Amino acid sequence: MSGVERFIVVLLFDGVDLLDVTGPPEVFALLRRETDDAAGCRVVLAAETPDPVTTAAGVRVLPDITCADAARHTIDTLLVPGAVEVDDERRVRALTDEGVVRWVRTLAGRSRRVASVCVGAHLLAAAGLLDGRRATTHWSTARQLADEHPAVRVDADPIFLRDGTVWTGAGITACLDLSLALVAEDFGEAVALRVARQLVMYLKRPGGQSQFSVPIEPVSTTRRMDDLRRYVDRHATGRLTVADLAAHAHVSERQLTRLFKTELDTTPAAYIESARVEVARGRLESTDDTLDRVASACGFQTVDTLIRAFRRRLDTTPTEYRNRFRHTGRT
């Protein structure tokens, strides 16, 4: 497709997450600069009307064209961002609007490939574009996606996934990783790496890498489970065992396992490990503690146990995680 302008459409609607909209165009703008390709990518923002759209951040964005105008073109890539609502208990829920879903379906039919950004996967699913496909989204809404669209094979862990001509990405800054992957598909890894350097990204993360957020905040429906979760949070750094947790709840270990499976779709041991990994992440990001000290301070008996937990939960090692996310305090 050398020398052919790629028409890229970013869907725009009220309440959309701002970074989902602005991140991908920045990647493609840097692509044009890095390749000196005047006939490279034309990125437009398309909304139902030409009126300004108010994003979730409160910033108003002016569409370039209407969705009806976009539908008259042959679209190379359709990028679909998302929107969420957060309740009083800080629970996140992805939003879908039927009018937006109709435009997703229409524009996808004119597109060579379709990609969702963050919770935009819920719009793709509502449009029927993810049926029978493997897809990802932000971990906080992955269960919602699976519950509402059982025909979708939801994988909450990767940063982005490709299934045929449909891509799905996690959130929120993972929109840059997804966009770089699209660049790599079209222009090669070397060009994508040059763009990544311009973005001052540490490296271009592979799609199979974990989102680096452990989803330990699923919604529970009983006071007993809420109490158990708070108990884990308070005691995760100590020698907390499944037996301790069962004793606190005044149930048998078998009953406890059933509770966690029913309420949170996990096991007590896995939940405790996730809580400990979250604490360890914070120490790795903000301290110079040795791995021995981190392991001890976070309830892991040995460094090997800490390393195995990080590989299970984040698909990386504590050292690799620290190298990437350590807060140095230097400018």
Written description of the protein model:
The chain is an alpha/beta fold and 331 residues long. It is built from 14 helices and 13 strands. The strands form four sheets. A seven-stranded mixed sheet has the order 5-2-1-6-9-13-12, with helices on both faces. The chain has a two-stranded antiparallel sheet with strand order 3-4. Helix 1 (18-35) packs parallel to helix 6, helix 1 (18-35) crosses helix 7 and helix 11 crosses helix 14 (318-325). The longest helix is centred in the C-terminal third of the chain and has 19 residues, at 268-286. The radius of gyration is 22 Å and the shape is globular.
In summary, what is this structure?
45% of the residues lie in helices and 15% in strands. With 331 residues, it is α/β, with parallel strands linked by helices. The strands form four sheets. The protein has a seven-stranded mixed beta sheet, sandwiched between helices.
Secondary structure topology:
Blueprint: E1 6-11, H1 18-35, E2 41-47, E3 53-54, E4 60-61, E5 65-66, H2 67-70, E6 75-80, E7 84-86, E8 92-94, H3 98-108, E9 111-116, H4 121-126, E10 134-135, H5 142-148, E11 153-154, E12 160-163, E13 166-169, H6 174-187, H7 189-198, H8 223-235, H9 242-249, H10 253-264, H11 268-286, H12 291-297, H13 303-314, H14 318-325
Parallel strand pairs: 1-2, 1-6, 2-5, 6-9, 9-13, 10-11
Antiparallel strand pairs: 3-4, 7-8, 12-13
Helix pairs in contact: 1-6, 1-7, 6-7, 11-14
